Every structure is written in structure tokens, then in C-alpha cells.
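cron nightly-structures :: item 1 of 1
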Amino acid sequence: MLLEDESNGVVKSADRVLDVIELLARWGREMSHTEIAEALDIPKSSLTKLLKNLTARGFVEFVPVTKGYRLGEALIRLSQQSTHSRSLVSCAQPALAEVTQKTLESCALNQLKGDQVEVVATVTSPQRLVSHLRLGDLAPLYAVSGGKVILAFLPDQMRSEYIKTVKMQAITPKTITVKKALLAQIETIRQTGVAYSMDEYTPGIVGVGVPVLSSSGFPLGSLNVAIPSVRYSERVGARAVTVLQAAAERVRRDYIAANEHTR
């Protein structure tokens, strides 16, 4: 039987089905039953029934080797059709423009792609000395502000798996390569809601990033600015944080509202 929330007319089980599909699409690889349950805060017994139905219809596929779930062929076929839901990118574009207008620095929306972070939308600074954040650019989660802040807010099991398997390499002399140091940064990021990359990925560039969180607390993505080191100071950094946090809240609110409306 479908469970309906009479206060807003939302069918809870249908809403959870969409949450599972969106999560698998964002994570970009197989996820275990436990990882999905933790990420979406769904009781394991309820999730088992959802996954059984989705697998039977071909929307989700169970991979015996990894004992994980991934998007199925039926959903891939449907993805070719137009959707009425506004994407996170379209919700973020006005906010990104405002961030650059207020900070005069290049900014980007980033999303998780496997064990990396991808730039999916960007606005370039009008100043002569700029950092170019290019669409499609990929970077290690541990090396950039937008990646660190996503990593910090992943569910515990997903974050632990990443820390366990990642091979950290020195991209610049300042890149963090010790997992203990990364874990310490993650704890600070979880407390403050802000991540920094101090010349750790691109020499001469300071990154400041904040998360865009779903209603369940899962990181839908992150917003960051890239500031040339010669222009960076504590005051500039604090100003960037204020602007980014306001923008992230705007994106989160617009995205949730738009997708609730289409559901």
C-alpha cells in the first residue's frame, strides 16, 4: 500500500523511489544496501522492498560481484526523454552569477562523480588575473575545496570507504597526502561547513567551498570560489564564505522546491 502524507499530498514510497534513483545517479558507481539506507535515512526493511521492485522493473540493477546496486537499463532508456524537474545546474546558475558579482572571483558548482568532483557550472571572474574553472574538469576530492566539503558531508560509510581506498598523491607541494591530516580537516569542515584548499591543487590559487545539502543532509554538490593567492586574506576569505553560504542556501531551497513541485 502506498503511504500518503495528507498534509501535502506526497506519496512517501514514491518519493523514496525517486530519492534512490537520484542517489545512484549522483554517486556514479554501485552502492551497497547499507550505504543507500544510511544516505537516505530509509529503514532497511523498507529499502529492501523498494530495491526489489526497482530491480524487477529494470530501473535498478543488482551487481552480484560487488553486492551493490546501480542504475538499470530501463532508467537509462527513460533518461533520453525530457524531464520536467529543474536540474541543480539550472537552479545554481543565478546564484553563481551573484557570487561572482559580489566577490569578483571565479566560482563553480561541483558535483560528485565516482571518487572525484566535477565542475558542472561556472562563472569566470571579470578581473585580469583569474582562475579558470572549466566545465567538465575533474579533481580529487581531497585536493580541492569543493571536493573536500562534499567528502565531509557524505554518509559515514561512504566517507570511510573513500578514505580507506583513496591513493593520495602530491599534486603540488602543499597537497595533503596523509590520511590522518585529511580526517582532521574533514572534522573541522563538518563543524564549520566550510572547506579550504590553500595552493593544494593549483599553485597560487586558494579555494573556498561550501556544501549544497539535500533535505536529508546528503551533499547534492558544492559551491566554491577560486581566489588568486595575491588577492587572498582572512577578510577576503570571510567575505567569500558569507556570500557562498547565502548562495548555497538559495540553490538548496530552489532545487528542493522545484523538484517537490514536479513530483
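cron nightly-structures :: done
Confidence is low (pLDDT under 50) at residues 1-10, 80-85.
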